[in-house]
Amino acid sequence: MKRSVEKSDLRGLAAEDLANKISSMQEELMKLNFRKSSGQLASGVPMRNLRRRIARAKTVQREARTQA
What global pTM score does this model have? Predict the structure, then answer.
């Protein structure tokens, strides 16, 4: 249920806003990656969840490009 809500929220964004959101999520993933490599992050679960959110956002972005 939550994924469908997130997808519908992403679909409601403009193309530029969606690109900005993807960029910010990628920056956050990079920060998590640094924290994981320095030992400050005990579990890799937040990284996995963020990678999946990025993939969902990129899928919505691709769908919007093909429909336009």
Answer: 0.89
Q: What angle do CA 50, 64, 56 make, to 5 degrees?
A: 15
Token reading at 39: 């030992």
The DSSP call for residue 68 is -
Counting every residue, how long is the chain?
68
User: Which of 36, 39, 65, 64 lies closest to 50, judged by CA?
Assistant: 36
Q: What is the pLDDT of residues 40-54, one digit of tens each?
A: 999 999 999 999 999
Helix (H, G, I), strand (E, B) or coil at 64: helix
DSSP structure string for 11-62: HTS-HHHHHHHHHHHHHHHHHHHHHHHTT----SHHHHHHHHHHHHHHHHHH
